[in-house]
Amino acid sequence: MVDRPNSRNLIGTLALLAGLGLYGLIIAELSVRMGDLPFLVEMVFYIIAGLVWLWPARALVRWMLAPGVEGDGTD
Questions:
Q1: In which domain, by residue range, is 20 found?
Q2: Against a cut of 0.85, is the pTM above it?
Q3: Helix (H, G, I), strand (E, B) or coil at 75
Q4: Within a domain: residue 48?
Q5: In this structure, is residue 75 part of a structural domain?
Q6: What b/e string do you get for 8-47 counting C-beta neighbours within 10 Å, with b at 16 or more?
Q7: Number of structural domains found in the chain
Q8: Are 61 and 12 in contact (CB under 8 A)?
Q9: Is position 3 within any domain?
């Protein structure tokens, strides 16, 4: 059996790239607006911001890897 790309992989990859790009822009804008906050506050912000994107990305990758139902066009 040969694994071939399906539409879920294409849609998921494009959504992941677009979502991460948008998320990066949002975090960059928030970091500019933080101004002169103490170092520890900024550090906590960046740690949380660096981890938050993992939850939606994980759900998207799970969806991409899920087997398609026959006849739904995702095979």
A1: 10-64
A2: no
A3: coil
A4: yes
A5: no
A6: beeebeeebeeeeeeeeeebeeeeeeeeeeeeeeeeeeee
A7: 1
A8: yes
A9: no
- The pLDDT of residue 70: 56
User: pLDDT over 70 for what percent of the chain?
Assistant: 83
Inside any domain, residue 1: no
Taking every pair of Cα atoms in the chain, the longest distance, rounded to a whole number of angstroms, is 58
Q: What residue type is 62 in one-letter code?
A: R
Identify residue 29 by its one-letter amino acid code: E
| Rounded CA separation 23/73 (Å) | 30
Confidence band, pLDDT 50/70/90 cuts, at residue 36 = confident
Structure confidence at residue 27 (pLDDT)? 95
Pairwise CA distance, residues 4 & 2, whole Å:
6
1-27 residue pLDDT tens:
556 668 888 999 999 999 999 999 999
Q: What is the DSSP string of 35-68?
A: -S--HHHHHHHHHHHHHHTHHHHHHHHHHHHSPP
Type of residue at 7: S
